[in-house]
Amino acid sequence: MQTLQNKAKILIEALPYIQRFGGKIIVIKYGGSAMEDENLKKSVVLDIALLKSIGFKPVIIHGGGKDISKWINKLGGEARFEEGFRVTDENALQVAEMVLNYINKSLVGYMGSFGVRAVGISGKDGGTLKASKKLINGKDIGFVGSVESVDTKLITSLIENDFVPVICPVSADEKGQGYNINADDAACAIAQGLNAEKLVFLSDIEGIYKDFSDKSSLITILKISEAKSLLKSEGVSGGILPKLQNCIEAIENGVSRVHIIDGRIQHCLLLEFFTDRGIGTAILRD
User: Fold this and answer.
1) Is the N end or the C end of the chain the one with fewer CB atoms within 10 Å?
2) What is the pTM of this model?
3) Closest to 97 in 3D by CA, of 166, 29, 180, 172
């Protein structure tokens, strides 16, 4: 009986969050170990299925960097990076688009096996993402794009017809030239375009630390002013810097809150959304 009562307490703890966020758009950037480990992949898809069934409106944006690198190497090329961005010549762009579309449709099929009605699109479909060439410190690294604009009509139509949009960040400019866009950048832009209630980054870290070398310094709640100060500190560096910048930009442009959570934890989305303590870092307006 005690076990059953504990389960009831968990449901009661979740109730105010279901009431508050039900019916709201949740943008999830899906990547890292949660895409590669089958048990974690199943866990995330089950979380999405539950969110959808209780009235949330999830939108998924995914990358596929490791698979792209693997296929470039298989085809005799070499994966090269500049400041964390893939140097993308015409061949690399073709491989990236092929791999990302394959991952996209595979994910849609997998979600369907758990009863989630999903539709896979790219940023090219319906002109969802318009891109321009991205320069890294003034250097041209090929067909790497920045998001110039977001047209949410197709995404909104899918949501209104009870589908989960699954989006890969391949895009084109006004002349039809294709670009590969960083998935974090695409998720940030789409969340802003949709005025999403939440933007969630699934990562391979627990969240944001005051000092990354000190794992006891995990920050559970971070206000925008504090996040800006943290950007200038020595404790934050490497790959978390652009992610934190994306979080700040998203909140300053209409997203209510951003979460960075550890996708290596089973049912990470449910634990972050429906428990009082959460498991990662939630970034909020001041």
Assistant:
1) N
2) 0.89
3) 180
Neighbours of 266 (CB within 10 A): 15
201-255 pLDDT per residue, tens: 998 888 888 777 777 778 888 888 888 888 777 666 666 777 788 888 889 888 9
Cβ 50 vs Cβ 11: under 8 Å: no
Q: What would the two tokens of residue 201 be?
A: 């980054």
Q: Scan for tokens 């870092």, then name that residue.
A: 281
What DSSP character marks residue 267?
Answer: T
Give the C-alpha separation, 97 to 171, whole Å: 9
**Token pair in block for residue 204:** 């391979």
Q: How are beta strands 57-62 and 25-30 bridged, if at all?
A: parallel
